[in-house]
Specification:
Length: 448
């Protein structure tokens, strides 16, 4: 059985953090910050009933950043001994003395730091032995292979469990930490008919193992999806509506976040440059950031700089409320941090006019493409040009006609986001971006 990360070590990790900050002060640093973490996990993979891998993961690390005025230096170490920590501080100080001054460099303002650290129920260890993990993966794969005799191969079923502890402190007096966990069951299966072979997958992930879908359900869903893909073919090149399934729809909003990130704005490398206060989504769409959802996969009491996280209406009635900012990017733009150093925390996309059921979405789509999986990285964050390989299903007269493969969908992200015509009620909670299916009014589908 995997030895759980000892959450009682938080005081010990805080002491190491404090000693590193004290060493930075002795070295003459005007400001300093330390981020320390312990990570541990177990991962198992089974293929065709046989064990392929059983892996333990143990990682630890300390990163220290020091400031001499507005000159910055950083160093890191995986050795938490007193000497190694002091050596890392010395290296960071040495680097800082030779770097150029940056007027925007420095810690977050003390007034922005989190004072109350809420318990977000993020830590649920799974006392899973390697034998139990293997047995769970075998049950998952077996359930999927039993769906249909045409499922004749497998890329495997996996079970992973992870637990970690993070402590952050800085010279403004902030010092806090919290444990967290995440667990996943997944399966990838192959189905064959004649000369055709198709693959598909499914997975479940959660903070609490009690919230996972059963291994058998994950396997069966992977099997059903693989069978549904048999007979896939290309379609003729045309312009038509595209319905993104929830597991790929969140990628659209990931591109939105990338475009409004502070670094993209001050580097002028965004297709939504200077878009705060402008219409970027249809007027019936909202995007909420909710960092304090209990057990949320993106939940955190403070960001990467110790800044308090808060609920926020990121997009209100389709209008962008503001950017996603760390202290540094905020200073570069002459704005104020939004508590997003390290990224966003639990984005939820909602419709003011009501989300549609799967049947309603198909009827609204009428004739077009459902995308269930995407390939390639053909996205230009500067221009918004978008071109990616896709697989899914062709819809005719509001009903699925056949599976589709080897097509490319293309458009411009600015137009695609503004051209969303419907949002589904089938919300996918397996990510820090929570949304249902998304129907884009028209895109280019390149096939035969």
């Amino acid at each position: 059985m995997v030895q759980a990360v000892d959450v009682t070590r938080i005081p010990e990790l805080q002491a190491i953090t404090s000693s590193a900050l004290a060493a930075a002060k002795r070295a003459g640093a005007s400001q300093a910050e330390v981020d320390l973490s312990l990570q541990q996990g177990l991962s198992t993979t089974v293929r065709l009933g046989e064990v392929e891998t059983v892996e333990y993961h143990r990682d630890r690390g300390l990163g220290v950043t020091v400031y001499f005025g507005q000159r910055k230096g950083s160093a890191s170490t995986a050795d938490l001994s007193v000497q190694a920590v002091e050596d890392s501080v010395a290296k960071a100080c040495s680097i800082a003395r030779y770097t150029a001054e940056d007027p925007c460099a420095g810690l977050a303002d003390p007034s922005d730091l989190a004072r109350d650290i809420p318990d977000l129920d993020l830590d649920h260890p799974w006392a899973l032995s390697p034998e139990a993990a293997v047995e769970l993966a075998q049950r998952c794969e077996a359930a999927g292979r039993a769906v249909d005799p045409r499922i004749n191969n497998s890329e495997g079923a996996s079970v992973t469990t992870h637990r970690g502890v993070r402590v952050y402190g800085n010279s403004h007096g902030f010092l806090a930490g919290y444990p967290s966990s995440s667990h996943t069951v997944s399966c990838v299966l192959l189905a064959g008919a004649g000369d055709g072979m198709q693959r598909d997958y499914w997975y479940s992930t959660a903070r609490d193992p009690q919230d996972l879908e059963s291994a058998e359900l994950v396997g069966r869903q992977a099997g059903v999806r693989a069978i549904a893909r048999l007979g896939a073919r290309r379609v003729t090149t045309q312009r038509a509506p595209v319905l993104y399934a929830p597991e790929v729809a969140r990628g659209l909003f990931g591109h939105l976040i990338g475009a409004i990130r502070g670094s993209s704005q001050y580097r002028r490398s965004s297709f939504l440059l200077g878009s705060a206060g402008q219409q970027v989504l249809p007027a019936w769409l909202d995007v909420h950031e909710q960092p304090h959802i209990q057990k949320g996969l993106g939940s955190t009491p403070f960001d990467g700089e110790g800044v308090a996280t808060r609920d926020r209406e990121l997009v209100r009635g389709g209008v962008l409320d503001g950017y996603v900012l760390s202290s540094y990017s905020a200073r570069k733009l002459g704005l104020h941090t939004t508590g997003n150093a390290g990224g966003t925390h639990n984005l939820t996309v909602t419709s003011r006019t009501g989300a549609l059921t799967s049947e309603e979405l198909l009827r609204k789509l009428g004739r077009g493409l459902i995308v269930t999986e995407m390939m390639g990285q053909g996205v230009n964050g500067v221009t918004g040009d978008y071109s990616r390989g896709a697989t899914g299903f062709w819809v005719q007269d509001g009903a699925i006609a056949h599976a589709v493969q080897e097509v490319t969908i293309a458009g411009n992200l600015k137009d695609m986001l503004a051209g969303i015509v419907a949002l589904g009620s089938d919300v996918d909670y397996r990510s820090s971006i929570r949304c249902g299916s998304v129907l884009v009014g028209e895109m280019t589908i390149a096939g035969e």
